[in-house]
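REQUEST FORM: STRUCTURE PREDICTION
Request ID: SP-0412
Submitted by: Lab K.M.
Chain count: 1
Length (residues): 595
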Amino acid sequence: MGNPNVGKSVIFSRLTGTDVMISNYPGTTVEFTKGRMRVGGEEVEVVDVPGAYTLEPTNRAEEVAVKMLEGGDVVINVVNATNLERNLYLTLQLLERKVPVIVALNMWDEARHRGIEIDVGKLEELLGVPVVPTVAVTGEGIRRLIEEIPRARSRSLRHTEAGRWRKVGSIVRQVQRISHRHHTLSERISDVTIRPETGIPIAICVLLGTFLLVRLIGEGLISFVTGPIFNAYGGLVKGLSDALGSGGLVHGILIGNLVDGRIDLSSSMGLLTTGLYVPFGVVLPYILAFYLVLGLLEDSGYLPRLGVVVDTAMHRMGMHGLGIIPMLLGFGCNVPGALSTRILETRRQRFIALVLLGIGIPCTAQMAMIFGLLGPHGVLPIIILFLTLFAVWVSVGLILNAALGGESPEIFTEIPPYRRPHARATIKKLWMRVRHFLREAVPFVLLGVLLVNLIYVTGIADAIGAALAPLMGVLGLPPAAALALVVGFLRKDVAVGMLIPLGLSVQQLIVATAVLAMFFPCVATFSVFLRELGLRDTAKATLIMLVTAFSAGALLRLMLQEPAWFVLIFVIALCPVAYAIYRIGRSRRGVRKRR
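STATUS: Completed
RESULT:
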């Protein structure tokens, strides 16, 4: 157990290795991780409890942490050695619970680098429990931590809240000494990246650089790894297709339709063609790239700074700055993005975050298909699409903030020091996330492809097209595009791929992909909506997403057909953004004047 951003999960990883299981706490969407280790020759279960600042819960994650504490035999309390005063408050609360505690004094190297000296023996004496200095990313102190676990002891301390803070202050004064030194380079970088006047431009550059790097790595993997592999695989599938007679029900399910007399892995829609090519050949390279870059941003300590920098802007949309974290995770996969909304304290914030996630954040799988679909037509269609999504995301956020009652609490987070990402920890985190994606995504892709085949074979496709033809007409799309919207409920990347054989114009492709991006979350994300919001609020969120998607799609069609309308409506769409920037500037000037 420990505060957020203290290296708790890295220590857990060091203790348990790679054989771990991620689960949701019963009745919630709060994730925790379980693994096993050996202590004194005995195999024991280790649980990485959600990060908490206090045992007097202020959010759902802390509520779960308190409940899980009741089932623990020993608590390894991970403490940030660079911020004793903040961290020891939770330590004292744990000691009051009469549960055996051992303290892992983590980031010991960072404390030394920052001129912080801690008398470990004195700290152990004052707390009355073992204290072990550790450096989780390198493994320093982990072996001794395991050896000391049997010495974990409980105390019977009792304080009120004010007395607890006085006790923390007394301990810190006795055990900690800070020597004078000059700012390091990392501290200067930290100052620059957290000040609004410099931090916002840097954040924009970081985000743009992130997605450019993801695309560069993803396209490189496709060109040099998955592309050659699937070219060879295509020959094997061709042999199977010939053996099946190039037609029939079995051929349609396994291989799919022949396009111009040949197999097209991206659009034939067979289980062995599109069903495997989409997740492994197209999507997996971008997933690897995104989660690698995201892991580097997390491990370096930049993400909490990003939350602080965008805090004022996010408040305009009903959330505090940490609301940007679910959006970033959503670009990888909407499911972990939706799950991470638990870091937001109020139901109002979580509702807004989930709606905005569903409307304006396409996952990497969908973006991979979008790049493949629009990329051959140049970069302009891609720019138009993402500008549209951004304008809608901001506008809906401003509207929801104004329409929904309640307040958005202030951001409350600890800013860790910048540190060099550790290769082993980064790669391990990457593997766990990729494994989770494959386990969640591949079955839905195969199910989606199978459903498409069955819909075509049974004639349901024609019925769907006829029923939704008027709506498709408003969007300027053929009736056949309606099936893509239906399949989008299972997997949006498969749905985008279904647009390929329809022969749509560039304008139609932009409108169709925009509507698909905003239309509805995939079924896996939808299940998180239900668990997080309940049936009633999920129905409200669904209605908002449907109205927004089709209204924005019709408006986008008009803008693309009439350049004059495009300019006018684009300027109008930017007004909320300009107003938000103006209000941010005013609030910043007001703060400086008061200072």
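NOTES: Confidence is low (pLDDT under 50) at residues 588-595.
Reviewed by: T.R.
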